[in-house]
Amino acid sequence: MANETGKVTFMGNPLTLIGSKKVGLGDKFPVGVVLLNNDLTPFKIDEVKGVKIVTTVPSLDTPVCDTQVRKFNEKAAGMNIGVFAVSADLPFAQARWCGGAGIKNVRTLSDHAHMGLADALGLHIKELRLFARSVMVVDSSGKITYIQVVSEVTHEPDYEAALAAAKKAS
């Protein structure tokens, strides 16, 4: 596994990202990674056709993550783009959060069991066993056309840049 220390911080303190590789612009989105829907059924993002926004968050139960998913839910309304929020939260916690937040345009997925997507993307925070905060746009061929790994875990991503990239990829 690759280690990268200091690319992301938590309150200014460097964290270590681990994973099988670090994906970047132009790379293929990982294929075959099984995540869990809120009802515990398996789900693979790569099997969804069309343009996708994939955003990763440390935990939906934190204020910045809550804001991030709510903003993508609001801003993606009416767009013909699949939007997925992935975290290491248990599927039950995700379902509870979605119900309370009224989320309809974002599908929340859990990687809690194996951290397979976190490892495949190189976004697994070693010290916390959580995802680093990121946003990716994946085009219809499965290529990552936009990626932002937010350098400070407590900061929000650039929503407008991600949405513009998604519109361009459509």
Features:
4 helices, 11 strands, 29% strand, 5-stranded mixed sheet, alpha+beta, 4-stranded antiparallel sheet, Glutaredoxin, 170 residues
Structural summary, described in words:
By secondary structure, the protein is an alpha+beta fold. The protein has one domain (26-169): Glutaredoxin (3-Layer(aba) Sandwich), CATH 3.40.30. It has helices at residues 63-75, 91-101, 116-121, 159-169; strands spanning 2-10, 13-19, 35-36, 42-43, 52-56, 82-87, 107-110, 124-125, 130-131, 134-138, 144-149. The strands form three sheets. A five-stranded mixed β-sheet has the order 7-6-5-10-11. The longest helix is centred in the middle third of the chain and has 13 residues, at 63-75. The termini are far apart.
β-strand percent reads 25-35%
Spatial shape: globular
Would you state the CATH class? Alpha Beta
CATH topology: Glutaredoxin
What is the H-and-E element order? EEEEEHEHEHEEEEH
Number of domains: 1
Output the CATH homologous superfamily.
Answer: Glutaredoxin
The name of the CATH architecture is 3-Layer(aba) Sandwich
Average pLDDT: 94
Helical content stands at 10-25%
- The side-by-side strand order for the widest beta sheet comes to 7-6-5-10-11
Major sheet: size, sense and barrel closure? 5 strands, mixed
- Mind telling me the C-alpha Rg? 14 Å
